[in-house]
Inverse folding.
């Protein structure tokens, strides 16, 4: 008898309730546009922004969250490197409530630091939109964000130009004053 | 005198020639292209799998096995799809107890396995779901999903060989999509 009780206790100990909810599943039907955003010629030290539209196709309201995701190399567009820092991307509302059968916009701001080492680069990062849910299955939609910064020629050219001007002006002035002070 | 004036003129011309293109770049236009204003969208016809009480070291499958849930591609663009799992956490206190999701579909003490199988995907059969995002529908051969496509799939859960009893556990599997 004690053995049976022990066995029953052991079986009970190995039981657990997983995913107990009997609530009917509520599939969240939504979409995001645009599916891909390409920003070109963004100079270091500048910022730009664009809008993402989230379409809630359900009849009830849902909360959506927007996050960034660094895609692995094999998932990125050809020639694109990993975006250096997700802190350069901000959202006007990382969590947004959208009423049933309606849509809302979220402004995405991309800011590139001033440093010249970020010039002339091509990066990719994904923006993930997902409805808040505790269901077993969830859907996340990614928007590809392709960012290209403008080239390095700006500062290098300016500095070179100024240096050449100073050297030639100095050389010209030297000859001018030398001739001027030279006795006839 | 003539040489000096010529030198200064050349200096100014050279300085302008080198600097102007650089200065012009300062005012270059930032271009933002939103590809065709495409909308990306996928949907699932089921999001819950109420298993109830489970035993240790036991395999559970959705019914029907591989046609349990249907993924539908909506929107206007072709998509590549991914799947990622997570640890199963104790609902009452997620920080103190969890089942770790294995990286190969197998189990262990407090370690559980998850697999999925897509109807028609005879090449791969059941594929482990891990905590690293991986292909859902195998698009690497160039077969991304187009708007209107449907894919049916099922899940298989392998419970840990040992776990603490009487605790409600919860996990989440995320299926995601990106423009192909």
């Amino acid at each position: 008898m004690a053995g049976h009780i022990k066995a029953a206790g052991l079986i009970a100990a190995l039981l657990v309730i997983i995913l107990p909810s009997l609530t009917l599943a509520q599939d969240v039907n939504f979409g995001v546009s645009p599916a891909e955003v390409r920003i070109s010629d963004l100079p270091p030290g500048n910022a730009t922004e664009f809008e993402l539209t989230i379409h809630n196709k359900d009849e009830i309201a849902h909360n959506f969250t927007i996050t960034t995701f660094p895609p692995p190399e094999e998932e990125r567009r050809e020639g694109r490197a990993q975006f250096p820092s997700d802190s350069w991307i901000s959202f006007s509302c990382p969590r947004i409530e959208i009423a049933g059968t309606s849509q809302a916009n979220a402004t995405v701001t991309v800011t590139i630091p001033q440093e010249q080492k970020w010039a002339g680069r091509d990066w990719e990062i994904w923006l993930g939109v997902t409805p808040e849910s505790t269901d077993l299955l969830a859907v996340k939609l990614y928007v590809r964000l392709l960012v290209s910064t403008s080239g390095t020629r700006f500062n290098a050219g300016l500095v070179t130009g100024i240096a050449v001007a100073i050297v030639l002006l100095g050389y010209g002035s030297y000859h001018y004053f030398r001739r001027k002070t030279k006795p006839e | 005198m003539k040489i000096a004036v010529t030198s200064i003129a050349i200096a100014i011309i050279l300085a302008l020639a080198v600097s102007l293109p650089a200065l012009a770049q300062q005012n270059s236009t930032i271009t933002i292209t939103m590809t065709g204003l495409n909308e990306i969208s996928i949907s699932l016809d089921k999001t819950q799998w109420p298993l109830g009480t489970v035993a240790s070291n036991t395999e559970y499958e959705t019914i029907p096995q591989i046609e349990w849930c249907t993924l539908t591609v909506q929107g206007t663009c072709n998509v590549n799809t991914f799947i990622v799992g997570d640890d199963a956490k104790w609902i009452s206190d997620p920080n103190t107890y969890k089942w770790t999701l294995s990286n190969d579909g197998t189990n262990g003490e407090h370690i559980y396995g998850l697999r999925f199988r897509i109807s028609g995907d005879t090449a791969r059969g059941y594929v482990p779901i891990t905590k690293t995002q991986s292909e859902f529908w195998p698009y690497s051969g160039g077969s991304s999903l187009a708007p209107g496509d449907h894919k049916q799939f099922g899940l298989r859960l392998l419970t840990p060989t040992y776990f603490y009893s009487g605790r409600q556990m919860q996990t989440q599997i995320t299926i995601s999509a990106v423009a192909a």
